[in-house]
Design brief:
With 254 residues, the chain is α/β, with parallel strands linked by helices. The protein has helices at 21-27, 35-47, 73-80, 84-96, 111-119, 132-144, 157-162, 182-195, 212-221, and strands at 53-55, 70-72, 101-105, 124-128, 150-153, 171-176, 197-206, 227-231, 235-240, 247-250. The strands form 2 sheets. The chain has an 8-stranded mixed β-sheet, sandwiched between helices. The protein has a two-stranded antiparallel ribbon with strand order 1-2. The longest helix has 14 residues, at 182-195. 40% of the residues are buried. The model is unreliable at 61-66 (pLDDT under 50).
């Protein structure tokens, strides 16, 4: 049985009070929603009702709850899709920090991608998805909605980096949600930090408590000096190059 050291998150005092005031009054406040949220959330709700069957090819750690390679869209959305409150959170990050270039590693059905795309007309997004069928599904949905600021790269993470498919692009926001294995997380973080991070840059890492090795990788990352780390238990946020207080802060949504 796996043990999760970060279970202590639930017993520790939350440190929202140590964050910049805007985090608590705007970014983390779930009752403040804009039109872009409702438009993107409509897509999420549609997927949760979609009974279309699709063939899945897993290149990373795979799903813990569904090992079948033929799955229903609504089940994929339920298990691996982002929650509405996370979509709201990432939209507010984009708006508040005026993000211009974003990278999403592991788009799946594109719930987070769509939230990001609707957040700002000035945002350009590159999304990486290894599974050909899912990448094709998202491309169809993107075109159906006339979303032009989202580009899908259909390849696995390692080959994207080995083939230099990102070129010399730098990103203001990077969301890592795929290949949930600690050693790969550290490997990708190193590549991204050295080659593809703008200054400053925000990196969001999903499923930091997926397994012991993912949690340990997160702990290793928090040793990085001159950075700020927000621990939401399900995901972690790293601020590189921002003038924020250094440290690891346990945070909750208000």
């Amino acid at each position: 049985m796996l043990s999760f050291p970060n279970i202590s998150y639930f017993f520790k005092r939350k440190q929202n009070y140590q964050l910049p005031e805007k985090f608590n009054s705007y970014i983390l406040k779930k009752n403040i929603k804009e039109k872009s949220f409702y438009i993107a959330n409509k897509y999420r709700k549609e997927l949760l009702k979609d009974k279309t069957l699709i063939k899945i090819t897993d290149f990373g750690a795979g799903s813990k709850k569904n090992k079948k390679n033929i799955r229903m869209i609504k089940n994929i959305a339920k298990i691996s899709g982002s929650k509405a409150k996370f979509g709201l959170f990432i939209q507010k990050l984009i708006k508040y920090f005026d993000i211009k270039y974003a990278l999403e590693m592991g788009t799946s059905l594109g719930i987070t991608s769509i939230f990001m795309a609707y957040a700002s007309d000035n945002l350009q997004i590159d999304g990486i998805e290894a599974c050909p069928e899912i990448a094709g599904f998202l491309n169809f949905k993107r075109k159906e909605r006339n979303i032009e600021n989202l580009n899908i790269i259909n390849n696995n993470f390692d080959l994207v980096f080995e083939n230099n498919e990102l070129g010399n692009k730098n990103y203001d926001l990077i969301y890592i949600d795929g290949n949930h294995r600690g050693e790969y997380l550290l490997k990708y973080f190193k590549i991204l930090k050295e080659k593809h991070c703008s200054n400053p840059c925000i990196i969001i890492i999903d499923d930091i408590n997926w397994s012991n090795d993912m949690y340990q990788a997160w702990k290793d990352l928090t040793k990085l000096k001159s950075a700020s780390f927000l621990n939401f238990y399900r995901f972690g946020v790293i601020f590189l190059g921002y003038n924020f207080k250094h440290g690891v802060f346990n945070v909750k949504f208000i």
